[in-house]
Amino acid sequence: IGKKIKIGIDKIGFAMPKYFLDIRDLALGRNENENKFVKGLMQSEMSIAPVTEDIVSLGASAAEQILDEEDKKNIEMVIVGTESGIDQSKASAVFIHHLLGIQPFARCIEIKEACYGATAALSFAKNYIEKNENASVLVIASDIAKYGIDTPGESTQGAGSIAMLIKKDPKIAVINDENVCQTRDIMDFWRPNYSNFPIVDGHFSTKQYLDCLVTTFDEYKKRYNQDLCDFDGFCFHLPFPKLGLKAINSLLEKNVEKETKNKFLEKFHTSIIYGKRVGNIYTGSLYLSLLSLLENCDSLKAGDNIGMYSYGSGAVCEFFNLTLAEDFKNHLRHDRLNDFDNRKQLSINEYENLFFEKIILDNEGNCDFSNRKLIQESDNAFVLEKVENHKRIYKKIK
Ligand code: HMG
User: Fold this and answer.
1) CA 396 to CA 65: how far, in whole Å?
2) Neighbour order of strands in the sheet with 382-388
3) Which DSSP symbol is given to 347?
4) Greatest distance between any 2 Cα atoms in the chain
5) pLDDT mean by block of 10 residues, the chain; 398 residues
6) What is the pLDDT of residue 3?
7) What's the rounded Cα separation, in Å, for the pair 64 and 96?
8) Which residues touch 311 (CB under 8 Å, ≥6 apart)?
9) Is residue 146 a known part of a binding site?
10) How many CB atoms lie within 10 A of CB 209?
């Protein structure tokens, strides 16, 4: 029997738009007490995507930060997890493959199951590499969360993209074999094709998220004979950080010593630093909490196990775990908070104008953004420059 190879996350990149809204300004604009959003949801800011930044430009920009020419020669598959698709037929991964200049003999697809899509993508990537040891797979989680003006979900919007290079002997974290999934056919959050915004049963969705976590983790413990003490930290899908706090507390409920509780809670608060400033990025949200934990926590070390909870409405969830690689700290950024500080703050009026601007086509199916300030202001590598004859044209600007 051959030696089992270790497969996992070798590099992680993150891209977000240039603009953000302070959650207190949203509260003011909607006549809500700001503490409802700041304390009740534990949110501080939301990333706002202009019309010139979509899931393709954000996804390609996140990947461009991490890939070198050698990586681009070895990638055999690009998988994008998203629920903000730009086309019903053509996969966003095909555009991204072209923009990045990845070698041509690759497979490119898009996966959908609400916020769960990127976790399914990781699993497919791992299976592929088990059979093709020297290949790499690029997994991208890219989404723009929009609930609409003056809706209960408005305070939980966001935009951004995570890119992960998956290969053998990874430099950041090994994806272990143990995992448990659960599927429930429920209507907690969905977006019919005829609707621009999701339909949400908000409180029902939070109950389902928590109940799926507890029952899936119980099954995981039973199947693999593991317990809390087998983990050094947890990361959760974060539609808003307070739900993550409820999630960690629900795992810590039974007979856990104060010291252990504090250890997990301290790590949890490190895992929400980025999410608090970006909002919900659907498929990427769990991986943004992982990035936040790994880049900001001093007490994690090689060999530590991180429990990961992925939840997509509808609903499919998965509990799985990662083991941190030998030298993981040297393959991450430690100055990322500067990127958040360098964003441009929007007033509530600017937010409404920007966030709800649509592509408006002329009779020939054209729309040109090339002279817009939005393009010059972007810090990302790629933007949507125009639509020509119904075809999206992206531009490399950095
Ligand atoms: P709401 O119903 O307007 O808010 O919207 P609420 O009344 O439940 O208040 C929120 C919290 O603020 C509560 O805390 C209040 O007590 C507190 P809790 O009791 O739950 O701990 N609060 C205050 N705290 C301090 N000072 C105050 C104050 N006032 C109130 N003055 C809701 C909340 C989550 C329903 C809404 O934002 C929403 O619908 N969001 C979208 C749905 C969502 O995020 N669901 C999460 C689970 S489903 C999921 O994760 C999947 C998803 O990512 C999509 C996908 O899979 O694709 C969404």
Assistant:
1) 13
2) 367-368, 382-388, 391-396
3) P
4) 67
5) 86 98 98 98 98 98 98 98 98 98 98 98 98 98 96 98 98 98 98 97 98 98 96 98 98 89 97 98 98 97 98 98 97 96 98 92 96 95 98 97
6) 74
7) 10
8) 115, 116, 209, 212, 213, 236, 237, 317
9) no
10) 25
Strand runs labelled E in the chain: 7-15, 19-22, 45-48, 75-81, 107-111, 136-145, 158-168, 173-183, 189-190, 199-200, 233-236, 305-312, 316-324, 344-345, 367-368, 382-388, 391-396
Active site residue 237: yes
Per the annotation, the verdict on 113 as an active-site residue is: no
DSSP 181-211: EEE----SEE--TT-SS-EE-HHHHHHHHHH
Selected catalytic residue, list 45, 53, 83, 113: 83
Q: Which residues of 15-29 are buried (b: 16+ CB within 10 A; e: fewer)?
A: bbbbbbbbbbbbbeb
Per-residue model confidence (pLDDT) at position 231 = 97
Which atom of ligand 1 is nearest to 114's Cα?
57
Query: Which one of 189, 197, 310 would you pick to mutate in the ligand 1 pocket, going by the greatest count of ligand atoms within 8 A of its CB?
Result: 189
CA–CA distance, 398 with 286 (Å, rounded to integer): 27
Asked if residue 43 lies in contact with residue 155, where contact means CB atoms within 8 angstroms, the answer is yes
Per DSSP, 376 falls in state H
0.80 surpassed by pTM? yes
Ligand 1 pocket mutation pick from 30, 147, 156 by most atoms within 8 angstroms of CB: 156
Q: Using N-to-C axis directions, what is the helix angle for 258-271 and 285-296, rounded to 10°?
A: 110
Residue 1's pLDDT is: 56
Complex ipTM over 0.90: yes
